[in-house]
């Protein structure tokens, strides 16, 4: 208590800097991989992707970023253990933010798409288990995260593989791909609208709906999403009518006109995924920051902490700056280095990833957005044969996923003992 009253302002400033650093890492790594499929397929340029992500990630983070701190809410650590020494929680959360931010910085420089959730979870587990007590950690939660390394990419990869196979069968491998694209793409547009609305309702807006005392069942979510899907399909049909066949561009690429149609779809999916991602993953940066601010202000550890709007603003700004300054490295990995993406393949990957997130939300399966997207890109690549995949890059990415949890933990332990030695 004495430490918090004596050094409260210094710790608060340090927490804001660490929270912004972590949010920067989320923007440079996690947001970049979410936009990588759109950029890699050339549906969007990097500048366009950054502008879309800046607007929709920030809107998602600020408008629907959540009320309760993510890390404590997710039950990774037992907050009651810190009741007699609340300053240890402050040191720990500061260490977790700096450790996860440092690991994301390293991964972004190397172009590795790693999970921000696993980075922060690893960091929290590290300082809790070594700095406090192994009993402070909910090890069952850690086990489910390890399982998700395999489950989420496998599920997303399978769905994306089947989706792209259907695109090949119904559109690409037919005598008149352009005519069949106009016939079948409205159904895919409905699926895009439905899936993205489901992601937004079940993940992005869940905190906003909870604040407003609105509780929707899975079927009600599905009904609202169906209306959105019909609207998206209606807008899509109108836009499709404006696209005229340009035979001159088909000389080099038989599918050039078809890809123009899928490119329009990719713009919609990129906007919606950015909003859903911003609303869901900003909590990784602002959750620990809110826990620190609340502990310093109250002088004790509480199970839940309110989320001041200025913290969400700080997190949103950090994400935008991270994407704009260093997002290009991870975008290149997802969009170009795993397999060659076109708008039709990128669309199948994004829809497969969205479908996996929806299924996970409905079943409670813990997944990583990063792992899901990488798995989806792999599935699309595999639909063209194993030779279409860059196996060396895939091995590197898999290794970086395994290293993320212990790396976050190790760095957090070092920071924790540094702060403990510095402040007492």
From TrEMBL:
UniProt keywords, alphabetically: Membrane, Phosphate transport, Transmembrane, Transmembrane helix, Transport
Coiled-coil residue windows: none
Lineage top rank: taxon: Bacteria
Chief localization: membrane
Claim: Oxidoreductase is one of the keywords in the record: no
Chain segments annotated as transmembrane: 6-28, 49-68, 88-112, 145-164, 185-202, 222-240, 261-279, 307-326, 398-419
A Pfam family of this chain: PHO4
Subcellular location: Membrane
Lipid bilayer topology: Multi-pass membrane protein
Key word Transport present: yes
Family per similarity comment: Belongs to the inorganic phosphate transporter (PiT) (TC 2.A.20) family.
Name of the protein in question: Phosphate transporter
Organism: Microbulbifer variabilis
